[in-house]
């Protein structure tokens, strides 16, 4: 412990004494938590795009809420929990054997995307909705396993529900462009679904669905190929956005042009002993070992840019630029020895 305590440390000790116990100052400090960043798998989507996707699926959640309430005649709450970028193998490894996945396909500009969007709904919420469709109250056992095995009748009802949910998914994009999603098929065994590369980037949208008697999740896995096509169409059909981006670049360039940089003309170099430098006086001459008409080097920001000749301009010393210094391959000038 330091010899002198800070005011915050004194206050902490007094507070511990008033509480009747002793506590380490280091334990009182809140530990900061940081997310680990994998530099081998850099993030592909910016915060702005993930925020846009969050807004899109917020709209989808409201539409989905209305559709569920109309189908099962019950009050529900639908809310987007997370919108997260990850690798497909992370999503695939979290799937349980026997879990049912649904494949949906993007239709944009009359063309259907080959790579599917994968949707996974928790058995609890699906069984509850299917029970309501059959006239029940939607009560589900608390210990319903995640690998619950659906009957043939369950699969038919499952397909009908998913078809309804997928049919309204495209409307949530109407603020950006016109697209739709088509129901593909229901696959009871996720290990057979290998239509996406394990290392491919995906965006996982997790939606919470709550009924008075049960809760569940609705996960939508959006592959990179699907999102790339959507974002490309948005950029293509939004000339205002491109124009604003260009104006923004011009503004940045304007600021860069007005940046101050040191411009140094180097006449030559020599080496002196510290004793000689200490004894220098006004009028002393230093031999630079450079001829009178030798070119000088102009440095900008510490880097060689030009060569020129010493001269005079309007009774002031000046340098006339002769050549532009050529930087060798590799992009950096070798350091002076």
Low-confidence stretches: 22-26
Based on CA atoms alone, the radius of gyration comes out at 34 Å
Can you tell me the number of structural domains?
A: 2
CATH superfamily descriptor of the largest domain? CheC-like
Span of the ends, CA to CA: 47 Å
Order of helices and strands: HHHEHEEEHHEEEHHEHEEE
CATH domain class name of the largest domain: Alpha Beta
Fraction in helix? 25-40%
User: Count of DSSP E strands?
Assistant: 11
| Helix vs. strand class | alpha+beta
Helical segment count: 9
CA-based shape: elongated
Mean of residue pLDDT values: 81
Q: How is the main sheet built?
A: 7 strands, antiparallel
What's the CATH topology label of the largest domain? Chemotaxis protein chec
**Hey, roughly how much beta strand do the residues contain?**
15-25%
CATH architecture of the largest domain: 3-Layer(aba) Sandwich
